[in-house]
Amino acid sequence: MAAGKEAIVETELDPAAIDLGDLERSASFLLRIAQLAAYEAIFAIAPNMPLKLSEQTLLQVIEDNPDARQGAIADVLHIKWSHMTKFVRSMEMRGLVERYVPPNDRRSVLLRLTEEGRAQLREIRPRMRKLDAEAMSMLTAQEHRQLVGLLRKVAGRPPLAEDPPAPARAE
Amino acid sequence: MAAGKEAIVETELDPAAIDLGDLERSASFLLRIAQLAAYEAIFAIAPNMPLKLSEQTLLQVIEDNPDARQGAIADVLHIKWSHMTKFVRSMEMRGLVERYVPPNDRRSVLLRLTEEGRAQLREIRPRMRKLDAEAMSMLTAQEHRQLVGLLRKVAGRPPLAEDPPAPARAE
DNA sequence: TATTGTTATACTCTATAACTATA
DNA sequence: TATAGTTATAGAGTATAACAATA
């Protein structure tokens, strides 16, 4: 936080001037670093959020997929089933989520939001959209779109119905 | 793993067909999902690695920055100082890393690889390069380069000396 | 007074594996 | 037999804060 930019040219070991070597071009490494940087940016903008990011995400996905299986949601969010059990139960205990067993497959557990969960989400959704935009403010709109497309590819999500891969110049 | 693609058109609640709503376009969310997917891909290709990815990364960075401060390395890798202490010590106990206090600033701790650490790295580096490439095999070479550039921007790393942002068409 | 690192506690999430209930 | 979920244990890493040594 200090203004120091003065006498640090002597040892070439000044902080933050770390050379990452091969890692400077490693997508998997940069994926991790960028993700951490993005989350830190979000927390810097909005400290003291009433719910954790993971909880806000879960609420969104449950509202958009009412009556989906707990395990199926865990899988898209890359949450381990053993942890999902505790996670969902803690949301249930706080009155945000309902769990119930459907009669046709009594092994499974389906999820729904409670009225309280829906109420919280109404405030959360716009805030989340804004935070994402602010955390990515170093990107132009086009770069943002590009990044989303590339990340979806890496994550194995289907392409969005926009920006066709190759206009093909036919016709 | 089953071939089932038959009678699942009834409830529109078939697994994995989860709709992520807003999150489908959220860069910060996709950053997390893509990162997890990439790491899972790496572990799927190479289970039973002798060192953890975080440990392999640390060795690389120490070799590329001998005598760098422990805290400075923690900062680029987004490792908390309190954890870095334990992390480095465990590497030291395994004979891979050396810690020493320089006489000119006795608050700090500088890091170096041991001969054993260097030996391990000689095998690790090529394997890491290959794993990164394989985990990103869904991308073309150009997409990979693009992704690296965008991730560096998000992570706050300076641009690589290639692919100038705008050729400017001057001259 | 600010910086560097250490220690300690609580908490989140993963890794593994065993286990139950249901299909 | 396979699938969905639960439980338990160990470990990684974060969040926080207090602390010591040095600058």
Report on this structure.
The structure is a homodimer of 171-residue chains. Chain A is mainly alpha-helical and 171 residues long. Chain A has a domain at 51-153: Winged helix-like DNA-binding domain superfamily/Winged helix DNA-binding domain (Arc Repressor Mutant, subunit A, Orthogonal Bundle). In chain A, 51% of the residues lie in helices and 6% in strands. The first copy, chain A, has helices at residues 27-45, 53-64, 70-76, 81-93, 115-135, 141-155; strands at 68-69, 97-100, 110-113. A three-stranded antiparallel sheet of chain A has the order 1-3-2. In chain A, helix 1 (27-45) crosses helix 5, helix 2 (53-64) packs across helix 5 (115-135) and helix 3 (70-76) crosses helix 4. The longest helix of chain A is centred in the C-terminal third of the chain and has 21 residues, at 115-135. The first copy, chain A, is globular, with a radius of gyration of 21 Å. The N and C termini of chain A lie far apart (58 Å). At the A-B interface, helix 1, helix 2, strand 1, helix 3 and helix 5 of A face helix 1, helix 2, strand 1, helix 3 and helix 5 of B. The structure holds a DNA duplex (23 and 23 nucleotides).
How would you briefly describe this protein structure?
The structure is a homodimer. Chain A is mainly alpha-helical and about 170 residues long. In chain A, about 50% of the residues lie in helices and about 5% in strands.
Entry keywords:
homodimer; 3-stranded antiparallel β-sheet; DNA-binding; 171 residues; Arc Repressor Mutant, subunit A; mainly alpha; 6 helices; globular
